Amino acid sequence: HTFDLVIRNAHAATASDTFKCDIGIQDGRIAQLGLGIASGSKEIDAQGAWVTPGGIDGHCHLDEPIPPPLRMADNFETGTRSAACGGTTTIIPFAVQRKGQSLREAVSNYHDRAQDLACIDYGFHMIITDPSEQVLQELPGLIDEGYTSFKMYMTYEDMKLNDHQILDLLDIARTKNAMAMVHAENADCIEWLTRRLEQQERTSPRYHAHSRPMLVEREATHRAISLSELAGAPIMIVHVSGKEAMDQIRWARNQGITIYAETCPQYLFLTEQDLGCDDRYEGARCVCSPPPRDKNNQQFVWQGLSDGLFTIFSSDHAPFSYDSPEGKKPGGKQVPFRRIPNGIPGLETRLALLFSYGVLDGKLSINRFVELTSTNPAKAYGLHPRKGTIAIGADADLVIWSEDPQTIQNINLHHAVDYTPYEGIGLRAAPGLTLSRGQIVYDHGTFKGAAGQGQFLRRTAPTLQPIHSPGSENQ
Ligand code: URP
Ligand code: ZN
Ligand code: ZN
Ligand code: ZN
């Protein structure tokens, strides 16, 4: 046989094309594309189903070191298993720097957590929480070693940076050509609103959304854009939740400032009402930041996905179980919203939701779907063209889609979280088969991969084109 594996009769889609072909895979890479190619030791008939590049989740949180009693439900094994079962073949979670810690230590600690557990390939972003003089000095070396992106928080007491610190880091991002990611919410406004709500004894989960209205995201988004412009370094604004923040991004691009933007499933499928319409604690399940907005904002986010305002679509998977003393009930208790760990799971459901409600409902072309979920994350984070496309020489990371209607149910998911915020949502299609470097890691409901199979990816500089004003022409 000429190939290890041949996928016959694929309806392949990349960010730019769709084509019918057979895919010849050898040594984990795509070796040939064409109709009627030679035989493989193994053959799979795709029967005309869509075949897309494996998903790249450029924003997910796994096994981050956090103060007890809190603990993330997913480690590298359960997280990557769940990702693979949802058609994602590469993840880039975060190596978090604790205050006083060197970035080197943070990264090396995180390698230990991934070692022998990852079932799919992975890189690390850094989260920089303490940009001391030493840290500013060690950062360029880490970028050179393949950690070519880092996240900065404008909020969270133990993580937030001030504008001066952000500028120092953006200056390094500019000189080293790294991708700087920004969590844009105004910390002081949130703290002021939170105290006022607490004085009024409004502490149930739904008030989390009241403490972080769109205004606090809009202000911080505009400020992040200004800092990016001042430092001359493009940024990726992560988890953009709705219109007012999108308006800032569109404005920036019209000024000629290159700003990249990410959104996530929670801003398409959840609203503030999912945090509760009364004081019941169940809403803690959907506590995340920024919080989900309203139906109107969901429509703007869909529009931004289709018209180019958004660069990438990530899960922001942040796995805390609901009925757990390590999760949404810290120490076993229902706590005021301030103390509910932020974040919701979404690694496994990201692609099926966007495919079903975007592509199959006619809101997104299949090419745009691939661009948002795979090609652009690969380009933004220095993995393209090895990852993020179907091309000769690229890794054989592929999804064969199955257009069988089904319903999202947590019992069928492969993460270690005890709920999904998308329980009961219907899907028109889902990944049927996932291949990671030519190996089947998921087959119609069953995980087929193995812990330790995933490789660490040293990443290069971003290769996204500067954005002039896509996302603004049609407005
Ligand atoms: O609520 C969220 N999104 N938690 C995850 C951490 C972050 O800020 O992305
Ligand atoms: Zn964030
Ligand atoms: Zn996040
Ligand atoms: Zn199938």
From TrEMBL:
Keywords: Hydrolase, Metal-binding. InterPro entries: Amidohydro-rel, Hydantoinase/dihydroPyrase, Metal-dep_hydrolase_composite, Metal_Hydrolase, Metallo-dep_Hydrolases_sf. Its cofactor is Zn(2+). Carbamylation allows a single lysine to coordinate two divalent metal cations. Residues 50-419 form the Amidohydrolase-related domain. The modification N6-carboxylysine is found at residue 151. GO terms for cellular component: cytosol. The keyword Metal-binding applies. Belongs to the metallo-dependent hydrolases superfamily. Hydantoinase/dihydropyrimidinase family. This is Dihydropyrimidinase. It comes from Advenella incenata.
